[in-house]
Design goal:
8% helix; elongated; 37% strand; single chain; mainly beta; 217 residues; four-stranded mixed beta sheet
């Protein structure tokens, strides 16, 4: 049967199926702009039309993971954005996989979803609005199929005094395509974790860089 591959952003240099099976995608290191953020994401779908129908439904999946950071306004200098630290920026993946489940299942298979480990960069996040709490919201698209180990530096920001603050993870974190990973930075110490399963969300402790005490999720 005839199959159609849809992907976005479109790359006019791609002219063969073999190129799509080893497709290289780079995220922008400066994503503090809607267009640069959207160009960093990668969406795709493969569908097979039904002969008797005149149209086909296309449901695009995200091949990248997404990090969302919510920051209490009193913790970050006005007009600045957080920076993700030491994140792979280039991935090679097989866009001919039939769906997200197949891609996720084959991520450890050579040639399916590989990272250019020498491409690790700091990635500036996009400020896209406010949470219902009034906190600032930032996001960035990053390649999947990699792990940040316990204790690794994950995020830096400039506090209202102009000082650089760096946050580390208190648990290891593995990125999968199509998943969102959310962190909330608040000044209160009595933060309560929501009751959700791993399928619904990842809840991660954020530690104060000076005292090591939990300051957010």
């Amino acid at each position: 049967k005839t199959k159609y591959l849809f992907y976005y952003p479109y790359d006019p240099k791609i002219t063969s199926l073999d190129q799509l099976k080893a497709y290289t995608h780079s995220v922008n290191t400066d994503q503090n702009d809607r267009d640069r953020y959207e160009a960093s994401d990668l969406l795709w779908d493969i569908c097979t039309p039904i002969a008797e129908l005149k149209s086909v439904e296309v449901e695009m999946d995200h091949a990248m993971a997404q990090i969302i950071v919510e920051v209490e306004s009193g913790l970050i200098k006005e007009g600045t954005v957080p920076t993700l630290l030491d994140i792979p920026a280039v991935s090679k993946l097989d866009l001919v996989k039939p769906d997200l489940e197949a891609m996720t299942a084959d991520m450890d298979v050579e040639g399916s979803y590989e990272l250019a480990e020498d491409s690790r960069k700091n990635i500036t996040m996009w400020e896209f609005g406010y949470a219902t709490s009034g906190n600032l919201m930032f996001r960035a698209a990053v390649p999947a199929n990699h792990t940040i180990s316990l204790g690794s530096k994950i995020l830096s920001l400039e506090n209202p005094d102009g000082n650089k603050v760096i946050y580390r993870l208190s648990k290891g974190l593995s990125f999968e395509p199509g998943k969102n990973y959310r962190m909330t930075l608040v000044s209160k110490h009595d933060v309560v974790a929501p009751e959700v399963s791993d399928d619904e969300s990842w809840v991660l402790d954020v530690l104060d860089p000076e005292t090591g005490e939990p300051v957010g999720l």
